[in-house]
């Protein structure tokens, strides 16, 4: 019985998970500097320990209603194409172990590009957690634009 660890985070009332091995760090929210002519979901850039880090608003990327930033808001930092990228989430609450038996494939309702980054659905007691691969959140063109920021 194989299991993996996932960082669990919230966007609104929904829970999502990303494999912990892909997460470089989780930090408190920092206001970003806006960069002109970037995709709508790119909030801007921050200086994170000497590295200029593009910040992506996952709510905007997923076309979800935006909420206010509060003390629970976090930035999950991962590496994409050897570039550090941060993702704004409402809350990064915990790390959970999920066995392969408790993960179902992404629903057939999810079609097109979205299915690339939804790796499955975790079922834990009365919780459903959408498991994501944040590296595939961006198209190749979007990755290139962020690489050039």
UniProtKB/TrEMBL annotation:
Quick one: where is this thing mainly located?
A: cytoplasm
- Cell compartment(s), UniProt: Cytoplasm
One Gene Ontology term from the biological process aspect of the record: chemotaxis
Q: Where is the signal peptide?
A: none
Check the record and name the InterPro entries matching this protein.
CheW, CheW-like_dom_sf, CheW-lke_dom
- Is Cytoplasm one of the keywords? yes
GO (cellular component) term, any one? cytosol
What name has this protein been given in UniProt? Chemotaxis protein CheW
Q: Which PANTHER family match?
A: CHEMOTAXIS PROTEIN CHEW, CHEMOTAXIS SENSOR HISTIDINE KINASE-RELATED
Positions of the CheW-like domain? 3-143
User: Which UniProt keywords are listed?
Assistant: Chemotaxis, Cytoplasm
């Amino acid at each position: 019985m194989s299991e993996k660890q996932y960082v669990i985070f919230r966007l609104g009332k929904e829970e999502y998970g990303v494999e912990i091995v892909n997460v470089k760090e989780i930090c408190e929210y920092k206001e970003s500097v806006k960069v002109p002519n970037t995709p709508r979901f790119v909030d801007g850039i921050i200086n994170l320990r000497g590295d200029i880090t593009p910040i992506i608003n996952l709510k905007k990327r997923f076309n979800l209603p935006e909420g206010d930033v509060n003390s629970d808001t976090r930035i999950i930092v991962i590496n994409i194409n050897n570039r550090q990228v941060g993702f704004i989430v409402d809350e990064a609450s915990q790390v959970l172990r999920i066995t392969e038996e408790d993960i179902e494939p992404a629903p057939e309702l999810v079609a097109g590009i979205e299915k690339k980054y939804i790796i499955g659905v975790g079922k834990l007691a009365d919780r459903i957690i959408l498991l994501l691969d944040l590296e595939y959140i961006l198209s190749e063109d979007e990755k290139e634009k962020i690489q050039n920021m």
